[in-house]
Each structure stands twice: as C-alpha cells, then as structure tokens.
Amino acid sequence: MNAPLYNAEILRLAASIPHHERLAHAAASAETRSPVCGSRVTVDVGIDADGRVSEVGLLVRACALGQASAALLATHILGKTPAQLAAARDALTAWLTREGDLPDWPGLAVFDPARDYTARHPSIRLAFEAAADAAAQAVEARSHA
Question: Fewer CB atoms < 10 Å away: N or C end of the chain?
C-alpha cells in the first residue's frame, strides 16, 4: 500500500464534522456501534413532506476513520431519501470489501487505504448505517401518524 491509513484528508475531515449536535426534536434516531473498537455514532434526522432528510444531527464517538466518514455523510445527507441512504450504505460495504465499485457519494475515495484493513470497516460504515436506519424509521413513523 502506498497511502497511509490516517492521511491528512482523513484527519481534516475528522476535525470538521458538520451538524455535530443532536437534534432537539428528531423524527427518528439511530445509534450504531462497532463491536471491534467500541466506536459509536448516533444520527438524528428530520424529514420533509417528501420523505427526504431535511435536518440532521450527529453524536460521534469514534476513531478518526469513523469521524471522517461521519463528516462525509453529514456534508451530503440533506435531501436524501431512506432508499438513497440504504443504497449508499450497501455500496460502501461492498466497495470496502472489494465486491463493488466506489460508491456515488462524494469523498469516499479517501478510505481506499483502509480497504485492506477489514477491522477498520465497521467504524467507516457506522454513520451510513445509522443514517439509513434513522431515515427509514422516520418515514415509517410518519406513515403511521
């Protein structure tokens, strides 16, 4: 491998997570935890009338890789549907394990050096897993309201 696992871009992203406070009145919340390292990410979402994420809040207690992934998620989540978030989560999982192409989500190529470190994959996936779960819960709750 040529690139270091914790490169300058990963560290920059980790230090600049947008929407880094929980929402006071979230439509739904989900927390994911890595059993490998104990990293945790909680994602709160609000949704609009079309079922798209209209607001997001995060609580990130993770390593630099998990923080960087949360930053990329938070930067581009607004306006996404639960289906788009689930597709991004699944594509990220496939790409990390070399079973798929680079996902269509800006910035994820920064994790290319981590693909060879399977123990790091769970922390990279945390924010995407929590966001997909929270958005799906919010739309489900709305349909029963």
Answer: C
